[in-house]
Amino acid sequence: MKLFNTLTMQKEEFIPLEPGKVRMYSCGPTVYNYIHIGNARPIIVFDAFRRYLEYRGYDVTFVQNFTDIDDKIIAAAESEGVPGSRYAERFIAEYYTDARALGVRDATIHPRATENIAEIIDAVGILMDKGYAYRSAEGVYFSTDKFEGYGKLSHQPREQLLAGARVETSEVKKNAMDFALWKTAKPGEPSWESPWGAGRPGWHIECSAMSCKYLGQTFDIHCGGQDLIFPHHENEIAQSEGVSGRPFVRYWLHNGFISIDSKKMSKSLGNFFTVREAAAEYGYGSIRMFILMSHYRSPLNYSGDILVQAGNALARLETAREHYEFLTENGGGGEPDASERAFINSLGGYRERFISALDDDFNTADAMAVLFELVRDGNTATSAGRAPSKALALALLRVFDELEGVFGVTRRPERGGDAGDAGIDALIAARQEARAAKNWAEADRIRDSLKDMGVVLEDTPHGVKWKYIK
After folding, report:
1. HSE-up of 176 (CA within 13 Å, CB side)?
2. pTM of the predicted model, to two decimals?
3. Least confident window among 309-318, 360-369, 430-439, 461-470
4. Same domain assignment for residues 288 and 307
5. What's the pLDDT score for residue 443?
6. pLDDT at res. 180
């Protein structure tokens, strides 16, 4: 397996630190709003990448955090007149609703910044002791001049980083590139006691503390969106290696942007669609399919037409799966004939080409093409003029399930309790809450969203029942 490592700007053979095990961290959302389609790309891509690692036999520890203390969270909570913790908790729940409906499995660990304050304070203290950090009137700052390798992930001289990035300027910083490790408390804001007074952590130190706590001071893979390379991931490296004196991460993976009219989709620009909005019109499955039909590092352009195309492609896979399942129950008896045996023997070739595509920097576009070739050829093989044998149908379904399971795009109603079912249950619970609050418009919106996912509801005296549309 080869991965494009942002740190070296080349494809490298993937060799984990510990044979058979992978330790992997992905930056999760700052929970002040619903996730948008741009946020969904790394969530879906690296969920699928984790699935592939497991498919290849690795024992994966996958950590994805929640940033639950932040300027935007504080401002949004104040505008609604609720505590920041309650506001963050609400959008963590909303994240799970969307992520699970997208077929995204929960991470091994979902740490929250506010649950790791002690580790953050310890890290800041070590950086102070080693001379990497200094106190100011506004808190504690990291001195980028002190870290010799600063800029090695961005591959840009410091002058260009300063000119091209949004860097906060302040009279209390020694250098414009320096960044906050600990922010002195402001009146009315959440805060924690520390050796430098009451305050709260800076954004970058949170991920350093949480990733090292759960994965060790050096771990295998760190991933996230391309927009996080600088300053967030660059600052993570400086802090973490400043604390440990050891390499922080061996492989850095970054997905490309999603754009609308050639402009990056982002909340700050206001040109974004939430996953919830898009799913209500096109379905969650179409969103996942849209993301995985392209290579993760390639730019993507969002449009309704493209999501419709993705939904149609997904329908082809789901129809094929239903067809193969039907044939396993209703196929012809007896042994497969010579042509069927030849096709059964050829199935390993699809597997080999599928693995070859994903081993080449996780090329989901080429691997998806192999899956559709399997469907095309499988449909031909099972409509050759006579009822196909059950042996052929079983072999075809087994390989289809094996390969498609890496993508996790098709609905599998017989597998109760999986991530997709959990997402549906979460949406139903949200609808029940809306009904209890007499928010009929929201309840109807959720019902329509579920219908777009292929799920129909039945309100019974014993509760809500649901099933997939056949």
Report:
1. 12
2. 0.85
3. 461-470
4. no
5. 86
6. 96
